[in-house]
Amino acid sequence: MKKILVVDDEKNIRELYKEELEEMGYAVTTVSDGVQALLAMGTGKFDLVTLDMRMPDQDGIETLRKMKEKDSTLPVIICTAYEEYKHDFGSWCSDAYVVKSADTGLLRETVKKILG
Amino acid sequence: MKKTTKFFSWTPDPGPRTLHFTMETTEKTELSILSEISRISNSTIGLAEKLRRIVEVIAKGMGKDGASVFLIDRSGKTVTLHAAVGLNQESIGKLSFPIGMGIAGWVAEQKVPLALEEPYADPRFAYVPESGIGSFKSLVAAPVMDEDSCLGVIFVLSSSVWQATSSDITLLTTTANQLSGVIKSARLFKGLQDRLADLASIYEIGMALTSTLDLEQLLSLIAKSTTQSLRAQGCTIRLMNLPEIVSKKTFAYHSIIGEAIRELDARIGPAIADRVAGQSRPLLIQDVSKDGSFNESTSGSVISVPLLFREKVIGVITLYNKQKDGQMFSDEDLQFLTTVASNAAVAVENAAMYERMEDLAIEARTRAQELSILNDIGTAMSTTLNLDRLLRIILTAATMGGSGLGFNRALLLLTNDRTNSLQGMMGVGPANWEEAGRAWGEVSSKHKSLMEWIQTGELFEHRDSALNALARGIRVMLDPAEGVLALTVLNKQPYNVTNAAADPAVPKDFRELLKVNSFATVPLIAKDRVIGVVLVDNMFNQRQITDGDIRFLTMFAHQAALAIENAVIHTNLETMNKDIRSLHEQLVQSEKMAALGAMMAEITHEIRNPLVSIGGFTRRLAKKLQHSEDKKYIDIILSEVSRLEGIIHDNLSYIKEVSLQLADTDVNSLILEILTLYEDELAQRRISVETKLYPVMPLLKIDAPQIKQAVINILKNAMEAMENGGTLSIKTCVLDDTHEAAIEFGDTGPGVTAKTMHNIFNPYYTTKPRGTGLGLPITNRIIKAHKGKIDLKNKETGGAVFTIKLPVSSTK
Ligand SMILES: Nc1ncnc2c1ncn2[C@@H]1O[C@H](COP(=O)(O)OP(=O)(O)OP(=O)(O)O)[C@@H](O)[C@H]1O
Ligand SMILES: [Mg+2]
To answer: Do A101 and B638 touch (CB under 8 A)?
Structure first.
C-alpha cells in the first residue's frame, strides 16, 4: 500500500484529505507543520507528500526545499489556498500545484496520476 | 608820321596864338555848336539819337555836308560807326575798323586830330565805298578823349576840297571833348540801368527762391527766372550730391522755347555739367561749334555755373542760347549767373534739407503710429494664454483698420515638427463682397478698439466662417517645391506676391483656393525658430501691399510669434501638469490596489480553508445520505460554496500579477474553440453567432489561455446583455494603419449606458445582481499586458461593440 504524508496546519483539512485519500486505498499519515513533516520523513518512507504552503512555524516553500534535499525523487503536491503562485510552482521543484477546493476531485486525480 | 605836306597833323598844344586865332574866326560858330551839343546831351533821348543829332549839329555848324562818330567797342580792339550824316545810314553799327587801321583806327590809336585835304591819296585811308564816303573830298578827324583813353573818333567831311584851318581843328577837338562827356554819361547811365536791372533780377530771383521750400517748384523757378533775366532760350539744372531722399529728383528742366533746347541739352548738357561740376568753375562757351569739344554741327551759346554749397557742388545750372539770333552770352551774363547761382545753391540745399526733414518727419510719424498699434496689439495679446483665442486676436489685429494692420483677410498656419508640415489653424476676414461690405459697415459704425472687442467677448463669438474653414483645410509639407508657404518657413523671410498667376512659387490650386492674385506671407519666428506663417491679402479693396506694409507686418509677426510660443508652452505645461496629475492618480490607485490585493490574498486564503472543510465534508456527507430531500439541502450548500470559491478565484485573478507565457497562436481558431465551448449556452439563450474571420490572420505571440479568459469575459457579458436572445457577431482583421490585429464583438443588447461607460473597466463595478464587476477589468489587464488596447462603443442600431486590438509583431 502506498503511503501518503499530508502536511497541513488546519485540522479539518488534514481530516478531510485523510478520509478522502484512505478511501482511495492509500495509507495516510498527517502532520500539522513542516518540522514534523521532516521528522516523519526520517522515521518512515512515503510515496507522496501533500504540502500546504503556509504553516505556522515553517514556510511550506522552505519545507519543500528540505524535503527535496532529503529525497529528491519524492513527489510533492503543493496544496494551497493561494492561487497566485501557481505559475511558479515548477521553480519550487514541486511535482504538482493544487488549489484547495471543497471539490477534492482535482487533488484525487493528481494523486492518482502520480502514484498510478 | 609827317609824311607829306598834303596833310596836317595837329598836336594838342593849344598855345595863345591858336586860341587867339580861333576866337577871331569861329567864335560865334563854336559857341552855337557847343551850346547846341550841351542841349542835346542834357535831353532824355538815347545815346544813338544824341550822337545822330550831334553829328548833324557839327556838320551844319562847320558848314560841311558830312560828319560821323566812331566809338571804340567794349573789346577795345575795334572802332565802329555809331552815327553819321552824309554817309550811308546802313553802315551804322557795321562799318568798323580795327584799332590802327583806317583813318578812324589811326586816330583812335594815335589819339591826335588829323586833317586830310586829299584822304584818298593817304596810305592810312581805307576806302569803303558802301559807306558813301566816296562823295567827299576832304576830312578832319579828332579823337574823343576821356582823360588818357580814347572813346572814339569824330569826323567832319567836306564834299568840296577843304583845307582845314587850325581853328577848324580846334573847334572839332572841343566838340570831341564835349562829346566825350555825352558818351561817358550815357554809358554810365546805361551801366547804372543794367546794374539796376541785374540787381532787380537778382532780387526778384532771391525773393522767388525764398518763396518756396518745394524743391521741384524751386528748381523750376530758378530756371525760369534766370532764363528770363538773361534772355536765354532755356535752362537746365542738374542736382548732385544731395541726400538720398531728394536724389531721385536730380534733374529739373525749364525751357522757354521748348524742344530745341531739350534736344541741345540732351546732346551737350551732361558733358557740360560734368565739366563744370568737376572743375567747380563757371563756364562760358560763346559758340559751341567752335569749342572743339563738341560736334561741329552742334551750334549754340552756353553758360554754365556750379551750384556751390559750402564749397561742395550740389548742382549745375546751364543756360542755352540768347533769344536774339546770333547773339552770344557774355562775361556779364556769366557774372550774373554766378551771382544768381550762389543764392540758388543755398535755396536748393535748404529745400533739399527741408524735404528730407519732411520725409523723416513723415517716417517718424508712421513709425510712432505703428509702434502704438503694435503696443495695443501686444496688450491685447497678453490678455490670454489660450492658443485659440490668441490666434483670433492676432488675426483680428491683422485685419482691423485703425488700431490694426488693416488687411482684408488674414490666415494663420502653424508648423508641425512631427509631420514636418504647415497646418492652417485659423482664418479671419469676410467670405465675400457682401460680407465685406457688412463687416466694414459694422466696424466703422461701432468704432471699437481691439481691447473693447476682447473685453466684450465679441471677438470670440462667431467662429465658423468660410475663411476659417478654408484656412483649416490648408496643409503643406515643408518642401521648397510646395511653394511660397513652405518657402516662407524654410527661408525665414516674407514674400510679397504681386502677381500670383505669373509666380512659379505659387501653386495654381493654392491661388485658386485663395482667389486673389496678390498676397503676402511672413514667417512667425520665435527664438530663431519658425513656428508658423501669417498670410494676408487685400482681396476686397485691392490695395497694393507695400514694402512698408511688409516691414510692419514683420514686426507684428515677431510679436505674434512670441505670444503664440508662450501660449503653446503654457498649453504644454498644462497638459503636462494634467498628465502628471493623472499619473499620480494612477499611482495612488495602483498602490491602493496593491494594498487591497495583499489584503484580499490574505482574506481569500483565510476563507478558502474553511470553505474547503465545509464543502469537503458536505460532499462526504452527501455520499452517505440516501434521501433525496436531504440531498437538496446539501446541493444548496455545495453550490453556494462553489460560488464563494468562484468569487475568490475572480478576485485573485484580478489582483494577481499577470505574467505571460507567449506562444504563436491563431486567434481565429482560439475564437472558434471558445464558441464550441459555449455552443450549448448560446443556443439555450437563443443567440445566433455570425463570424467574419480574416482568412490570412497572422499568428500572434500571445498567452492563449489568458486571451481566452479575456475573450470569454466579453462573450459572457454579451450573452448576459442579450437577455431575450439576439445576434453575436465576431470579426477579426488586421488594421492597415496601425498594424494591429483586431477582434470585434458586437451584440444586439441594450448597449452600454453613459454612466456604465465611465466605470466599465473599474474593478467591482457591476449592474448585475450577482455580478462581481471583475470581468472586464480582468480582460483589460490581460490585453494591456499584451500591449494591446480595448475599445468600446455603442452601435447606432443598438447594442455594444467591444474591440480588442493586439500588436501583430508582439514578441514581448
Ligand atoms: N455587452 C454589454 N452590453 C451592455 N452592458 C455591458 C456589456 N458588457 C458589460 N456591460 C456592463 O458592464 C458592467 C461590468 O461588466 P463586467 O464584466 O466587468 O462585470 P459583470 O459582468 O457585471 O460581472 P461578472 O463579469 O463578474 O459577471 C456590467 O455589469 C454591465 O452593466
Ligand atoms: Mg461580466
So the answer is: no
